[in-house]
Specification:
alpha/beta; 2 domains; eleven-stranded mixed beta sheet; two-stranded antiparallel sheet; about 30% helix
Length: about 475
């Protein structure tokens, strides 16, 4: 221990200064914290440089395909969709801050294109895909707000188009899952749009993620490119707010439909991965101050072992690194790169300590008890961390969040509303919940009307209201 004596002496001196008697000391440790520049420097540089590059109206947007739908069968020849009137696929011109890496196992990924100052430097432009879902309610001339939608794990922005999948969604309460975005949009006068969160989008999964997991030294393929993906979310939101109305008015397929965009109403709703990265987006965006986080969490190194979604990746990791200790060390190490975009770093920047120039932002978080894919436990850590994230009353009939006093409804500000669909709490431990008779509740809340009414009320008022009549949600037998 001789070489460590100087470090111990420093710790003892700090403890003495705080009045801790060494004779009573059983255990003490010190740890390093990251500077704000280390955590946020490159992301903020890209945001500010990117906003300057596209100008005050955001990136140019181009419509590549427009599909029109009828609410019911008629003589128009249009396909029937009871909720969606117009689907648009297009591209937005985005400044690009990535370059190709060296090759590993025949694969190249995207990493920062660093300038001489060590900051990401723009290397040309790229056309980022986007999708828009416009409901039938928008065809009567009433102004509709905008919602940026964050897609799920290794998904893509076309999820917002509600392409018609439908299947049984859990057992409690039993109902069909499908077309939920169009239904919310049509019921609540909202226009949803989305893009790929590159870095963790569908194309990244097979192209780089399954290769990278064999040698985590290539983790920047994911962490670096997520910076570009989040930048594009921020810039696309600015572009939709400033340019969408003019684009709709100019295109021959939409100019006579009477669609009116309300640029004063701009919100965020993310599900799963989109819920996880919602706080990061909101903390960065100068245009959105209220967001909905569907089945969210934070701190990926904590989430992974508790998620069934990590199992295929863990199988590859286990072959390359069979020692469990090695696996844990590597996951902790890559978290230091993930921290630069992980919401664990950005929750404090919502309302407790916003970035300079940004207004405070607030979120309504809607986890599901017993979620197979995203552990609600990580949100409880955020609630204990003095970042302005309240726990709403009637959180759970069986347990409470330690060290946190629940707040009553209605609540103005950020808060967690736990949803229950029959699943029990999992046993403690770094493992996913076992399968049970109720099935995975991960997708249940978004298809439940009271959940969505609570979300939209929060969007428009900043207030979280009780939609479950004074009992844990949902209020069903």
């Amino acid at each position: 221990l001789g070489p460590r004596q100087a470090a111990f002496d420093e710790v003892f001196a700090l403890l003495d200064g705080e009045g801790v008697d060494r004779a009573t000391l059983t255990l003490a440790w010190d740890f390093h914290t990251a500077s704000e520049d280390a955590l946020y420097g490159r992301m903020l540089h890209m945001r500010d440089d990117g906003l300057a590059a596209v100008g005050p109206d955001g990136p140019e947007i181009t419509f590549d395909q427009i599909d029109l739908y009828a609410p019911e069968a008629d003589d128009s020849g249009r396909e029937v969709n009871p909720y969606t009137a117009v689907r648009i696929r297009g591209t937005a011109r985005m400044p690009h801050y990535m370059k190709m890496s060296d090759e590993f196992l025949g694969v190249r990924g995207w990493i920062f294109n660093l300038g001489e100052d060590g900051q990401p430097a723009q290397d040309g432009w790229r056309d980022a895909r986007f999708w828009i879902n416009i409901p039938h309610s928008a065809l009567n001339g009433d102004a509709h707000g905008l919602v940026m939608y964050g897609h799920g794990l290794f998904g893509d922005g076309k999820d917002v188009a509600d392409l018609g999948w439908t299947r049984l969604c859990g057992e409690y309460p039993p109902r069909e899952c499908g077309w939920f975005i169009g239904r919310i949009a049509n019921q609540h006068q909202l226009i949803f749009f989305s893009a790929d969160l590159i870095g963790m989008a569908a194309d990244d999964r097979d192209a780089t993620a399954l290769t990278m997991i064999q040698n985590l030294g290539w983790f920047p393929w994911l962490a670096d490119r997520l910076h570009q993906g989040l930048l594009e979310y921020v810039l696309l939101t600015r572009g939709m707010k400033q340019r969408l109305q003019a684009a709709l008015d100019a295109h021959e397929a939409t100019r006579d439909l009477g669609i009116t965009v309300d640029p004063t109403q701009v919100y965020y709703s993310g599900i799963s991965q989109g819920g996880i990265f919602g706080p990061t987006f909101l903390a960065l965006s100068p245009d959105v101050t209220r967001g909905h986080l569907g089945v969210p969490g934070m701190n990926y190194s904590t989430l992974l072992g508790r998620s069934v979604d990590f199992e295929p990746f863990f199988g590859i990791l286990m072959q390359a690194h069979p020692d469990r200790v090695d696996q844990l060390v590597m996951l902790a190490a890559i978290q230091q790169l993930w921290d630069t975009v992980d919401p664990v770093s950005y929750y404090p920047k919502l309302s407790a300590d916003p970035f300079p120039g940004n207004e405070p932002s607030h979120v309504i978080a809607a986890p599901a008890r017993g979620d197979y894919q995203v552990s609600p436990m990580t949100l409880e850590i955020a609630a204990r961390s003095d970042v302005g994230l309240a726990v709403l009353e009637n959180y759970d009939p069986d347990r409470s969040v330690e060290l946190v006093e629940p707040v009553p409804y209605p609540h103005t500000g950020s808060g967690i509303v736990m949803w229950h669909f029959g699943n029990p709490w999992p046993m403690p431990g770094n493992r996913p919940p076992p399968e049970d008779e109720w099935g995975d509740p991960h997708e249940s809340g978004r298809h439940y009307d009271p959940h969505n009414e609570q979300m939209v009320h929060f969007f428009r008022t900043g207030e979280i209201i009780d939609v479950c009549d004074g009992v844990p949600c949902p209020n069903e037998p």
